[in-house]
Amino acid sequence: xxxxxxxxxxxxELNCWRITSDRAELLIAQQGAQVLSYQRIGxxxxxxxxxxxxxxxxxxxxxxxPVCWPWFGNLQRNPQSVQNMFQGEQAPAHGxxxxxxxxxLGMEESGNNLLIEFTLPEAQGELPGWPHDVELKLRMELGxxxxxxxxxxxxxxxxxxxxxxLHSYFAVSxxxxxxxxxxxxxxYIETLADWEQRQQQGNLAFTGETDRIYLNAPxxxxxxxxxxxxxxxxxxxxxxSAVIWNPWTDRAQELPDMADxxxxxxLCIETANVWDDVVELKPGASHSLSVTxxxxxx
Length: 298
Ligand code: TA6
Prior knowledge:
The chain is mainly beta. The protein has helices at 80-83, 248-254, and strands at residues 5-11, 14-20, 24-29, 34-40, 67-68, 103-110, 113-119, 134-142, 146-154, 160-162, 164-171, 179-181, 187-190, 196-199, 204-205, 210-214, 220-225, 230-237, 241-246, 266-273, 279-281, 286-297. The strands form 4 sheets. A 9-stranded antiparallel beta sheet has the order 6-7-8-9-22-18-17-12-15, with no helix packed on it. Strands 5-11-20-19-16-13-14 form a 7-stranded antiparallel beta sheet, with no helix packed on it. A hairpin with a 4-residue loop joins strand 17 (220-225) and strand 18. The longest helix is centred in the C-terminal third of the chain and has 7 residues, at 248-254. The radius of gyration is 18 Å and the shape is globular. It binds 6-O-phosphono-beta-D-tagatofuranose (TA6). The site of 6-O-phosphono-beta-D-tagatofuranose (TA6) has 10 residues, from strand 19 and strand 20.
């Protein structure tokens, strides 16, 4: 029977919890209900935490799993129905949830697993420029794997349309040596070439800056990492789109919270609802977006 030790820690300006068991270690920030790192004992980390991460209020940490909500990326690139939800002036990239304090609802052991639940109370009508009434919860289940489930429940009396992502930063030995399985044959939007639509041939390998939205993505994707003799597995639900991002050399140099060579050790695969896969919630409706992160030896 696994037992979990929970310690509170301060990282810069952020309140965090470190959870340790004989199987894994998880670090979570209250801001954004953001998983900052996840490591299974005896393995390299599964989720990447930037060496130069900045732990500041209002700023998402370059690490783990930022929650992008109620829109993904640049709001102007979203369908009009998502743009119409926002009535503010400046729309921050990746929405409003990742830089705000969430509330911890509870942690409890269930069998061998630990369940952790957060909510963002401001999503019920108090987000700046976003006057809608949604109960937003992030549930984490830590066991042999880590499962994250983001649930949006429309409590208001008008439709709500949103895009979102669990913007996971995976740790890899060297991004130039890994491949993503599960994308062969998929259509994708190449955001670096004027958002042109293209088709993937074979596994995805990395030879330069990459920022793509894969459409009709399967529920299972994997990162094969021969140097670390490991396959990272992602099992999604409630999602038909996946964003794959690596900034490579020049973009990494522009990011103040990433070492110049930090791009070599990370790879984002973001379990998402974007592009033609946005979520429309009628009054009283809910949607759950989930990813389960695990690994296996090659
Ligand atoms: O998901 C890919 C992406 O939207 C990229 O375009 C890149 O900018 C990245 O997310 C990180 O965004 P951030 O706002 O966290 O720097």
